[in-house]
Design goal:
The protein is mostly beta strands and 438 residues long. It has two domains: 262 residues, Jelly Rolls (Sandwich); 136 residues, Sandwich (Jelly Rolls), CATH 2.60.120.10. It contains three helices and 28 strands. A hairpin with a 2-residue loop joins strand 11 and strand 12.
Length: 438
């Protein structure tokens, strides 16, 4: 595996696994070197503005249109899409009453489970058919699938490992992604996810909307938060393999499978700006208060999927990394609040300062739009009585998938034994302190 620095979102990148495989001066010459086929993969409309136009040219052993069998509709039992039920019909029924919810980690999958069959959808939001919103999944798997591949036409996939290192093989190359890092696979790109450590567990955000990009920094200026130089994309690496391979396509909320007689990851060279990438969350440079008060959590946004409404995201990917807390005369954990965004939260390792009890690594919580939430009673008591000296939050890494849309809990998540029925009791100890007036 090799990785190269991405020169910046929107900029072209070029790489070849065989010297001379990448044409120079034109994208689709009459005869490509080594008998390769030229193929363009477009992640945006052809006429999108230059600043948002995404495409890559791939030079491959066989064009991806070549497959041995027609597509056959199939089902991946626990992977669901927003706006579409198992029978393909739209549904407005809630699987759980409205409320704040929290889960312990999903059950360990049985032996022989691959990534594709280890994905468990927890919430959906928006509509996959109209390309808005998202789905929040967990994955847990233990078996590699040498000849099984996936292409997601519904959206790009943000993978957040929590346990075990992933080996992600894509048409454009390979990435190894350990807990503490993330990977993004663009819509429509064929890939395979394997585990390097026997068992792998983590989270996945399936983004139906605009591609994830870096947020504007506004008054923060040119530095801090996530910097483009820290995002890495694979160098070209190809599989020259003749074998019976399955390719699953996720399309309009359903799954379809075809068989081909070779690996679909046979791209020998490529150039463009539509590429998978990975990012080490330890390179995120947080900013915060250095006098008093508590900035909005938007200062922890790593990536955002924008909408036509300025400042209102289809998705924000937000992290709460290790950091210093220094503000004086300030309630330091996140305050009690209600929010237009709905928040799916996970914990990669350590403790989350607002919920030190009951929220464990691999677990997750859901606080939907305009539902009140905030620190539990234990966290509140600790924070209000603490001596406000500088404190390093060293053992922590939590994240949120935020969206402007309401998130609906799936039947699978609603029936999990790991759903904490007593979650709302964590606020029961927040007693009245205001004196009664005579």
């Amino acid at each position: 595996m090799a990785l190269a620095y991405m020169p910046g979102f929107g900029n072209d990148f070029e790489t070849e696994a065989l010297a001379g495989a990448l044409p120079q001066g034109q994208n689709s010459p009459q005869h490509c070197n080594f008998g390769l086929y030229a193929e363009q993969l477009s992640g945006s409309p052809f006429t999108a503005p230059r600043s948002t136009n995404e495409r890559s040219w791939l030079y491959r052993i066989r064009p991806s249109v070549k497959h041995a069998t027609r597509f056959t509709e199939t089902d991946i039992p626990w992977w669901r899409s927003a706006g579409v039920t198992a029978d393909g019909e739209h549904s407005h029924r809630l699987n759980l009453p409205l409320g704040q919810y929290r889960w312990d980690p999903v059950p360990t999958s049985p032996a022989g489970t691959t990534f594709l069959h280890g994905v468990r959808t927890i919430t959906t939001a928006g509509d996959a058919l109209t390309h808005n919103g998202m789905a929040a999944h967990c994955y847990d798997f233990n078996t590699n699938s040498d000849n099984t591949y996936l292409c997601n036409a519904d959206g790009e996939m943000l993978l957040v490992p929590q346990l075990g290192t992933l080996s992600i093989s894509t048409e454009l190359g390979q990435m190894h992604v350990a807990p503490g890092s993330i990977a993004v696979i663009p819509r429509g790109m064929t890939f395979r996810v394997d585990t390097l450590d026997g068992q792998a567990r983590g989270y996945c955000c399936e983004n139906y909307g605009a591609p994830l990009t870096l947020p504007d920094r506004g008054p923060i200026g040119a530095n801090c938060l996530a910097n483009p130089r820290d995002f890495k994309t694979p160098v070209a690496a190809y599989e020259d393999k003749d074998a019976d391979c399955e390719v699953y396509y996720k399309w309009s909320g359903g799954f379809h499978v075809t068989h081909i007689g070779h690996s679909p990851l046979d791209v020998v060279a490529w150039h463009g700006n539509y590429a998978p990438y990975c990012y080490d969350l330890a390179t995120f440079s947080p900013v915060g208060a250095i006098a008093f008060d508590h900035p909005d959590p938007s200062i922890f946004t790593v990536l955002t999927s924008p909408t036509e409404q300025s400042g209102t995201a289809n998705i924000d990917f937000v992290i709460f990394p290790p950091r210093w807390m220094v503000a004086e005369h300030t309630f330091r954990p996140p305050w009690y609040h209600r929010n237009i965004m709905s928040e799916f939260m996970g914990l990669i390792h350590g403790k989350y300062d607002a919920k030190e009890k009951g929220f464990v690594p691999g677990g997750m919580s859901l606080h939907n739009q305009m539902l009140p939430h905030g620190p539990d009673a234990f966290g509140y008591q600790q924070a209000t009585q603490a001596e406000l000296a500088p404190v390093k939050l060293a053992d922590t890494l939590a994240f949120m998938f935020e969206t402007r849309y309401a998130q609906r809990v799936t039947p699978y998540a609603a029936a999990l034994d790991s759903l904490q029925d007593d979650y709302i009791d964590c606020w029961a100890g927040l007693e009245r302190q205001f004196p009664k007036q005579s």
